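Please predict the structure of the following assembly.
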Amino acid sequence: MKLIMTAKSTKPLVFQVLAECSTSKARTSLLTLPHHTVETPVFMPVGTQGTMKGILPQQLENLNCQIILGNTYHLGTRPGPELMAKVGGLHKFMNWNRALLTDSGGFQMVSLLKLAEITEEGVNFSSPFDGTPCMLTPERSIEIQNAIGADIIMQLDDVVKTTTTGPRVEEAMQRTTRWLDRCIAAHKRPDEQNIFPIVQGGLDPELRQQSARLHTEREVNGYAVGGLSGGESKDEFWRAVHLSTNILPKDKPRYLMGVGFALDLVVCCALGIDMFDCVFPTRTARFGCALVPSGQLNLKQKAYASDFSPIDDECDCSTCARYTRAFLHTIVTMESSACQLLTIHNLSYQMRLMRGIRESIKEDKFPTFIQEFLNKLYPGKDYPKWVIDALSAVNINLNESQ
Amino acid sequence: MIFRYLSLYQFIDFVYFPNSYMDAMESLRPDLYQTLCDSETDAESTAKRLQRSVKSTASFFEYCLERHKNSKVLEKSSILASLVGGFCSERRRQLTKEMASQPVDGFVIDGFNVSGSKGESAKVELVKELVKQTIADLPEAKLRVLPGCWSPEALWDLVQEGVDVFDSSLPTVVAERGSALTFKFCPKTKSFSYNFEHGGENDLKSYEISLKDKTYFDRLEPILEGCECVACKNHTKAYIHHLMVTKELLGHVLLMLHNLHHYQLFFDKMREAIRENKEETAES
């Protein structure tokens, strides 16, 4: 699709809704960022340490990746913000010319570091290298993200596990807003980088509503929905997403963090989400699993030893053009090239899925797309209840066998 | 010239079973292959060991050649006779003379145990003498293959002795230790030059730089100025160093892309040097 830019926009983010699904809350838009214009709904692969494992930036472009993630905790440690600033940012450092998004570093801290302790000031932890006490504050997180230079940067939020209940959840929600204000105040490049706040509140609808409302009172160009990628039940999950998108403004992008399974992507697009990220497709590739419309193929299984078809007959990626399941079976988890070959395929799968979603919304045929997608994933029509409920909440009723 | 060909190193299970080996050749249908041999010998091998290696190799050869002649599937494949004998001049000469008149397409000079980084520290002067002697007894018009991880200078010497085909061990071994080839070879002067400007502590050999070395932490130039490979056109030493430190797969990928490219160019230049030599000889 040819994109015509008229006057150069001084805003670091322009969000233009191209089409809306007349049944559900899905929409397809153009998200114009300083480095690239991204078509949404979009899936953002995660290139943690400034690289997608084993893949050249050129290969990512060929796969039509438009925006990828870098992790602030990892990059802030190695190579560190000073070198990033010296080089001119992560774009230049890794030679990726399209859009970048960085997380705040908070999530990694809490999940990777055993001794992370959260105070009003920030996240207290012991350096994994020499054990010295360190502190990640909202200011420091933004400082590192300013050096990395991504188009979208995330506020440091007070993350709690979805399974947490009680006053801690509200405390985290309120602190997240206070930290948002500190992040905005510390931000040195508001004309080039967009801070996204993160809606928290656990699974409590009241708290989530409050969090979203507080965020909409700030001058921001997009919103993230956080704290929903593990631990909670699928039923609680979709309801929290649905609630969040009902409150968040329609004219700005909504980013659901940590979601990447195909089924979740499709349903959450129907619920009005525009952006997703997840390590799943690239991680599962390294374990020898290939993504296909019917689910996953675990290529380590002996069943594939003499299967001479490509991973997916309808896939046009370079892996499916040249290699058979049988060949991949012999090399998965043993040769590093298997990691690359499967990563390319899985990214291609994700990109094609998102393109299919976008195109069907443009043609106002998204419900049909969903039905066809589910037919392949659940040929026996045994759809999970949460999927039926979530889609029904946005007026999509599935063909079920009685 | 470098080649991908099927060597016996990939078939450890088949080492003592020539029939399984030839079954495998018929399944794989390589463009060229060497006959099964007992080549796990080196400078320290005893006389008895060398005798056994030569005897087994000759016997395997007979079997492989017979199977090859009768194989429809291998009609288009070229068979290369394996020559062994460790570092013993007599044993090598004996076997070479036997093999030289055989109806094969070429010869693989094996049995020095120079795979991997062993090749880099091999007794090159001895190998050169033995290769020289071997080639003197081989027909001019047939291919000579010498596997092994030779340093660039050793390789040029071996080319001048008459070897036609080498493998890609050096670029691979160098990449595996996190290094990039940076030596230069001038076809006109036939001499080598090296990159000592960085003085990294970990630069193991004169012909490479170690991207793991802290020196490269903030170096914003490519591995080698003027190199047209994917790694040098798109990435910096600093980035590759970061990939090494974080043990990211892309680091190794970029080093391999550079090293293979650099190595291929080296072969282009050696061929140019040989052509120049021929022209000079013709003129004089």
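The CA atoms of residues 115 and 148 of chain B lie 5 Å apart. Chain B touches chain A through 18 residues (CB under 8 Å).
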